[in-house]
């Protein structure tokens, strides 16, 4: 472990020299004059004065050496199509998308909202925005109208790029009606909506606003749009993530720091080199999709596989089939996907030649020991658990085989990655914890390159949300509990806040509660995350009705439950739908009115609810027990 420890030490103690060296991985049109400006803590500005461009580094820079090599490999088992785009093809498509946006008036600093499924146009438009210096905001296709409207209001996009439909399990899922509803609900109107028509669902075009992309693309297919060189700290994108309030936070990322951090991680963490093939099965709507479907591999001259489909269709060997066909070197997936595979015939794991595959990376949610071990033994490949967040953009804790191969331990995402001065801090005292002592996982600022620069349009919220958790100490809180064992291996022990993680999707319970409360029959509600064998966690809702007597009617309970679930689906998308909506007469609260979520979770999981000295009405807990 000596090498990886020394590497980490250098990255913290000799921070500027370390990152100045790593910065050589990318093209700088204008060299930076200062590696780090930390004159206004906790805001860190990396590679000050340097001018660069993410699209240039991901596409143009590789055209000479890799023009005819695969760059984007699109596999869709939803529409049974596979397309390999070379770097030259990618360049053509990105330029056509950029010329289209330009024709619609998009200039540097404008926001472009991308609401697309896993189709190549999502990557084309992200890179096109990067080329123009426009700020993209990709919204996960599984989100519904209300989520989308909130993001339109906050980001105020000039243009929205969307489609007629996505597809799941072979069935089309219409996007356009949701988009129309969202635009109607929001107070900001985009000037133009560009639609990629896949021919999967009928779609109405609003005259004067909506445009079919096909003719625009055809017209611009030979365009060459000049790269807009951006100062390293200009915003590249906004990606919304859930927190403890009903309003998602727009995580804002920079340009130069992000490019450098991702490029370095491709080698040190993911063991990749130019020409390799990388396959991340995440959706572009999440941070992994941004960093490791689109930007990371392409910046490092690697090909990336973009997959539209589920891990079990046409059968549970599809991931392995893709790896065999395209000679994939590294797979990045989520524990939930692997837990799903575990239920299928183990022979499927051995049907394909996986000799190209070096390692498997799993992230986004806790990886339980059994699942990690099962996969590693079944495939005979190392399985690496990564821990990170939308906010950081790349791993905080991980093994780093590109620095040094060290033994991993299932249940632990290994140790801090270079660049992260990670700590475990005692919430009450603000002091660092000792070995085996549980505390909050934190990062001593400055945050490294690639991590969020601020919350879009709200510096004050950035400081308040992330840097004010510890008495007398300005330190970034991850809002995760953790500990470090005697040997220096780190363990993540769950969230400190009300955020839950369903199948790797981060959801704010507050957002779901707000949706439950919009049902006219509901007075108040509590939504909690409960352990689930497959999905890690699932949401469970407890609702107090305005008039509990309505439940006396026959069938009322089921009808209300179904109605409330439908409201949630319409506002927050199917991912947020709770397993159950249970009705109670009151919620267990402290005397100061805070819902005792931990006690509710404990009861749902069949555990002891613990210390209840602050409870207002102990009878409320009995009701939860009875409802269960
Ligand atoms: P997101 O921002 O959606 O990527 O969610 C980040 C959160 O997911 C973290 O704060 C953790 O709570 C959880 N998480 C991500 N990766 C891991 C991991 N490897 N082990 C445990 N929890 C994880």
TrEMBL record:
It comes from the Bacteria. SUPFAM superfamilies: Acetyl-CoA synthetase-like (SSF56801). One of its GO terms (molecular function) is propionate-CoA ligase activity. Residues 5-58 form the Acetyl-coenzyme A synthetase N-terminal domain. InterPro entries: ACAS_N (IPR032387), AMP-bd_C (IPR025110), AMP-bd_C_sf (IPR045851), AMP-binding_CS (IPR020845), AMP-dep_synth/lig_dom (IPR000873), ANL_N_sf (IPR042099), Propion_PrpE (IPR012694). Residues 511-594 form the AMP-binding enzyme C-terminal domain. Residues 60-444 form the AMP-dependent synthetase/ligase domain. Keywords: Ligase. Pfam families: ACAS_N, AMP-binding, AMP-binding_C. Its EC number is 6.2.1.17. Belongs to the ATP-dependent AMP-binding enzyme family. This is Propionate--CoA ligase. It comes from Castellaniella denitrificans. The lineage of its organism: Bacteria, Pseudomonadati, Pseudomonadota, Betaproteobacteria, Burkholderiales.
């Amino acid at each position: 472990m000596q090498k990886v420890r020394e590497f980490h030490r250098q990255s913290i103690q000799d921070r500027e020299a370390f990152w100045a060296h790593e910065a050589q991985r990318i093209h700088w049109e204008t060299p930076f004059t200062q590696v780090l400006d930390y004159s206004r803590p906790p805001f860190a500005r990396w590679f000050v004065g340097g001018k660069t461009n993410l699209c240039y580094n991901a596409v143009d820079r590789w055209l000479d050496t890799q023009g005819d090599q695969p760059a984007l490999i699109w596999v869709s088992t939803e529409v049974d199509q596979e397309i390999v785009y070379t770097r030259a093809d990618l360049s053509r498509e990105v330029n056509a998308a950029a010329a289209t946006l330009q024709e619609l008036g998009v200039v540097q600093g404008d926001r472009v909202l991308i609401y697309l499924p896993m189709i190549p146009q999502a990557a084309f438009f992200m890179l096109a925005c990067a080329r123009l210096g426009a700020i993209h905001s990709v919204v996960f296709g599984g989100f519904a109208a209300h989520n989308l409207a909130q993001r339109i209001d906050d980001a105020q996009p000039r243009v929205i790029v969307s489609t007629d439909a996505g597809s799941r399990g072979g069935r089309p899922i219409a996007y356009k009606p949701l988009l129309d509803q969202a635009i109607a609900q929001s107070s900001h109107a985009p000037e133009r909506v560009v639609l990629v028509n896949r021919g999967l669902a009928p779609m109405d075009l609003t005259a004067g606003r909506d445009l079919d992309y096909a003719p625009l693309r055809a017209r611009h297919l030979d365009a060459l749009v000049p790269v807009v060189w951006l100062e390293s700290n200009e915003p590249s994108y906004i990606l919304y993530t859930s927190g403890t309030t009903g309003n998602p936070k727009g995580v804002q990322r920079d340009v130069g720091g992000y490019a450098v951090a991702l490029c370095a991680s491709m080698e040190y963490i993911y063991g990749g080199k130019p020409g390799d093939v990388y396959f991340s099965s995440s959706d572009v709507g999440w941070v992994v999709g941004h960093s490791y479907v689109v930007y990371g591999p392409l910046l490092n001259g690697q090909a990336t596989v973009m997959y539209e489909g589920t891990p079990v269709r046409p059968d549970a060997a599809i991931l392995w089939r893709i790896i065999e066909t395209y000679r994939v070197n590294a797979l990045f997936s989520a524990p939930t996907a692997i837990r799903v595979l575990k239920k299928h015939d183990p022979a499927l794991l051995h049907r394909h030649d996986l000799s190209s595959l070096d390692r498997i990376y799993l992230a986004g949610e806790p990886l339980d020991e059994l699942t990690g071990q099962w996969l590693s033994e079944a495939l005979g490949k190392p399985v690496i658990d990564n821990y990170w967040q939308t906010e950081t953009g790349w791993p905080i804790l991980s093994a780093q085989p590109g620095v040094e191969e060290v033994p991993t331990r299932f249940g632990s995402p290994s140790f801090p990655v270079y660049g992260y001065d990670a700590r475990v801090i005692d919430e009450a005292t603000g002091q660092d914890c000792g070995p085996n002592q549980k505390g909050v996982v934190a990062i001593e600022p400055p945050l490294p390159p690639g991590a969020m620069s601020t919350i879009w349009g709200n510096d004050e919220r950035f400081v308040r949300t992330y840097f004010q958790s510890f008495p007398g100490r300005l330190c970034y809180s991850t809002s995760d509990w953790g500990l470090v064992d005697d040997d220096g291996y780190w363990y993540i022990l769950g969230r400190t806040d009300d955020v839950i993680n369903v199948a790797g999707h981060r959801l704010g319970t507050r957002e779901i509660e707000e949706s439950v409360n919009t049902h006219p029959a509901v007075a108040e509600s509590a939504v909690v995350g409960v352990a689930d064998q497959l999905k890690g966690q699932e949401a469970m809702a407890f609702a107090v009705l305005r008039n509990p007597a309505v439940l006396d009617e026959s069938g009322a309970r089921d009808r209300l439950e179904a109605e409330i679930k439908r409201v949630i689906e319409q506002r927050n998308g199917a991912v947020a739908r709770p397993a159950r909506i249970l009705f109670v007469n009151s919620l267990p609260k402290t005397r100061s009115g805070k819902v005792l979520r931990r006690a509710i979770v404990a009861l749902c999981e069949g555990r002891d609810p613990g210390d209840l000295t602050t409870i207002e009405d102990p009878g409320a807990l009995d009701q939860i027990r009875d409802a269960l």
